[in-house]
Amino acid sequence: MDNQKASFVPVTQPYLPPLAEFTPYLEQIWSNKWVTNDGPFHHQLEKALCEHLGVEHISLFSNGTIALITALQALEISGEVITTPFSFVATTHALHWNGIKPVFVDIDPVSMNLDPARIEAAITPQTKAILPVHVYGNPCEVEAIERIAAKHGLRVVYDAAHAFGVQRDGQSILRAGDMSVLSFHGTKIFHTFEGGAIVCRDAETKQRIDRLKNFGIVDELTVGAAGLNGKMNEVQAAFGMLQLKHVDYALAARARIDSRYREALGGVRGLKLHEIASNNTRNHAYFPIRVTPEFPISRDALFEQFRARHIAVRRYFYPLISEFVPYRDLPSASRENLPVASEVSSEVLCLPMYTMLEAVEQERIIEIILSCAAEAKAA
């Protein structure tokens, strides 16, 4: 294998349109002298996102974690919430900051999402909600989850951080559940540097969310709830308006990258590529592979091969949330309770996937995997 040093390739990278395109937006903000607190761009972006995503009500936030914390507050969730251990830690942190006990349930080995078949066994009299994650932008089995929720009188809040623009049976996946929460972090397909949003069902709920993200303020003289400060500022919102103009380009570029990976790696023994059901759209937010025991070297050994060549692949999600200090002592956090999640976490590797990934860089990535397979076999 070629050990020659090469330029660093990140696992992800924000797409940034030409700076000249953003200048008029900044000039407008300076002219308005309105930099935060429900400014003109804030309202424009909410309207534009509703139209683009096919939803009726959306509330913008400074980041996705604050949005998720607020969604749980808006629904007055308490007690226990069933969730997945296979996600970014912010999913469970949002429960912790609301004084809610997370109850981890195992995942499906194919979708890597919360397994509906395992949810009911985890329900107790203290269970108030289900918090699934559309992992890598792959929709959960929303019909099955919501049948269970309806049967037991539970709320459903979807962590849709990866699921911008994703549809299921021709409808936005963000319409599922009581609420869906998006992340607009710089690593996402659509981003506002930092940012996030809550999608909800009705105007009354949106009003409650909007108040909660602004300290609970009702009017000049009234604070109706112990809210926090989660507002999106005008610079973020303006950048979002610009990003929306480029999101189709970003999606098309990611689709090409995804297609090339699948063409080159689909037949490699010991690798499992992430698949989604035919009734779901794919937004190519990530490109995870599973390095199974049939591959000639381990996932961690392959990880080190990439790092030695200055390519930042990521073991995402490893470790499981249930293995982190704040949560590992929970009864539901035991590996015996989470055999599939534990196995997937030990095998998963996310390859670089971002809009401006160059073809020559992608070929380097593919060649490393193919060379590892071939050399290990030869040895």
TrEMBL record:
Modified residues (N6-(pyridoxal phosphate)lysine): 188
EC category name: transferase
GO MF annotation: an example: pyridoxal phosphate binding
Origin: domain of life: Bacteria
Claim: Transferase is one of the keywords in the record: yes
InterPro entries cross-referenced by the UniProt entry: DegT/StrS_aminotransferase, PyrdxlP-dep_Trfase, PyrdxlP-dep_Trfase_major
Annotated EC: 2.6.1.33
UniProtKB keywords: Aminotransferase, Pyridoxal phosphate, Transferase
Catalytic site positions: 188
Stretches of the chain forming a coiled coil according to its record: none
GO BP terms: polysaccharide biosynthetic process
One Pfam family this sequence matches: DegT_DnrJ_EryC1
Family: Belongs to the DegT/DnrJ/EryC1 family.
Protein name: dTDP-4-amino-4,6-dideoxy-D-glucose transaminase
Lineage: Bacteria, Pseudomonadati, Pseudomonadota, Betaproteobacteria, Burkholderiales
